[in-house]
Amino acid sequence: MKKIEAIIKPFKLDEVKEALNDIGLKGITVLEAKGFGRQKGHTELYRGAEYVVDFLPKVKLELVIEDEMVEKAVEAIRTAAQTGRIGDGKIFVSPIEEAVRIRTGERGNEAV
Asked: Nearest CA to 15 among 94, 97, 88?
């Protein structure tokens, strides 16, 4: 099993969710996040005063899936979240040693 974490722009969430649904993924966890990468935030003008926005709003997706679904899921996220502009986000893939469904006690792929 693998865990995929993806940080994307908030307005791309629905498109990514649909893309993952289309390849048959069963569930995802979505978290609101703030952060910055290479763009280092930006300045905005509010009531005539300029201020720096250090942390930009992002959405973090987490999903744990079977190994054979990883490439399909990564590609679905990448294509759905891509705008071609700076700040599109990142996708991270990590190994998962164990998963346990609390309700039934199922383990491994059956728990996912």
From this structure: 88
Angle at 23 between CA 18 and CA 25, to 5 degrees: 80
32 Cα distance to chain centroid: 10
Query: How far apart are the C-alpha atoms of 81 and 23, rounded to whole Å?
Result: 15
pTM: 0.85
Torsions phi, psi for 36 (to 5 deg): -150, 155
pLDDT confidence tier of residue 44, bands split at 50, 70 and 90: low
CA-CA distance, 100 to 30, in Å (whole number)? 20
The runs of H, that is alpha helices, within the chain are: 13-22, 70-81
